[in-house]
Design a protein that fits this description.
Blueprint lengths: L10 E5 L7 E9 L4 E6 L10 E5 L5 E2 L3 H4 L4 E2 L11 H8 L23 E6 L2 E14 L2 E6 L8 E4 L5 E2 L3 H5 L9 H12 L24 H21 L44 H15 L8 H28 L1
Parallel strand pairs: 2-6
Antiparallel strand pairs: 1-2, 1-5, 2-3, 3-4, 7-8, 7-11, 8-9, 9-10
GO molecular function, one term: chromatin binding
Protein name: L(3)mbt-like 2
InterPro entries: Mbt, PcG_chromatin_remod_factors
Length: about 325
């Protein structure tokens, strides 16, 4: 960028960000870091700084002085000056300011394929959600003057030829985005669609009489069946006379009759039953077991082995217990009797 850079108070020409179709007289009010500038439009006066805009030094929106004069573009001048008689020499003397050097601006023109009257699709930078049908109105160096079809010239916008806000014709249809058509063309398109539609030939069709079936519940099921049979015979005779085939009849189901529910009282009686505890198993002595074995051996003809004195004592005690128990039972029977 050379030895000198933009300084405060330097004069230049800039695109008005609030009216992108106008190029105005502007002033550098502040130099920021990384090549950014705070630029103000001289045609607007504000002490609060609300008329300042941030541009980068390489932006296409800032231009050297006399750019509009060289390219036959109307320059928006400050108040008190006439656009027809305005000159930068007198304005710099009146404001005691210095013009920004032309080498600081990005005015390189590598060439592009745009030319006037080309159709494209462009974003309305004042309403960035809208993509409209547009036409290239002028080509000045890197700048393109975009005109939105169907709108006045005051809505035109200056943009760079490498701007990401311009697209080829058919881009919206390709990506599925809504394209804003020019005013008045919507009705023409609708009329064209209506003309292309073919009218269907009129075909006369005989209307069929609709039969209304009423749901009828009879108390007597026999009469209901008789009525149904009579209706079936009538329909068969009518169908035989009419040339059109009859639709199948739908038999209506009779609703079930309501039956009375009688309450039944159930008497519940409780019976107490005594449950005796299980009998305790009787203990069988060892002597009784041995005696039974001996008797079995005698019956079978085998000899019974001699018992030891201890076995004899056990046998005697067992006999005494049996006699005592038998005597107790006899006493109990005598007392009961």
């Amino acid at each position: 960028m050379g030895d000198r850079f933009f300084e405060e108070g330097m004069k230049l020409e800039a695109i008005d960000p609030l009216n992108l179709g106008n190029i105005c007289v502007a002033t550098v009010h502040k130099v920021l870091l990384d090549g950014y500038l705070m630029v103000g439009i001289d045609a607007t006066t504000s002490t609060s700084g609300s008329n300042l805009f941030c541009y980068h030094a390489s932006s296409h929106a800032i231009l050297p002085i006399d750019f509009c004069k060289k390219n036959s573009i109307t320059l928006t001048v400050p108040r008190g000056y006439d656009a027809q008689t305005f000159t930068w020499e007198t304005y710099l003397k009146d404001t005691k300011a210095e013009a920004a050097p032309a080498r600081l601006f990005n005015t390189d023109y590598p060439g592009h394929g745009f030319s006037p009257n080309l159709k494209l699709e462009a974003v309305d930078l004042m309403e960035p959600r809208l993509v409209c049908v547009a036409t290239v109105k002028r080509c000045v160096g890197r700048l393109l003057l975009i005109h939105f079809d169907g709108w006045d010239d005051e809505f035109d916008q200056w943009i760079d030829h490498q701007s990401p806000d311009i697209y080829p014709a058919g881009w919206c249809e390709l990506v599925g985005y809504q394209l804003q058509l020019p005013p008045g063309t919507v009705h023409l398109a609708e009329n064209q669609v209506v003309r292309n539609k073919k009218t269907k030939p009129f075909v006369y069709r005989r209307k069929k009489k609709r039969r209304v079936f009423r749901k009828r519940i009879s108390q007597d099921p026999k009469s209901h069946q008789e009525n149904q049979l009579a209706g079936d015979t009538n329909t068969t005779t009518n169908d035989s006379q009419s040339p059109c085939p009859a639709a199948p009849l739908v038999q209506l189901k009779a609703e079930p009759e309501e039956r009375e529910i009688v309450r039944v009282q159930v008497k519940v009686e409780e019976i107490e039953t005594l449950i005796n505890p299980p009998d305790q198993p009787q203990k069988v002595s060892q002597c009784e077991v041995k005696q039974e074995k001996a008797e079995q051996m005698i019956q079978s003809g085998h000899q019974v082995p001699e018992q030891s004195p201890l076995a004899g004592m056990i046998h005697q005690t067992a006999e005494k217990r049996e006699t005592a128990e038998n005597g107790g039972e006899h006493k109990g029977q005598a007392e009961r009797s």
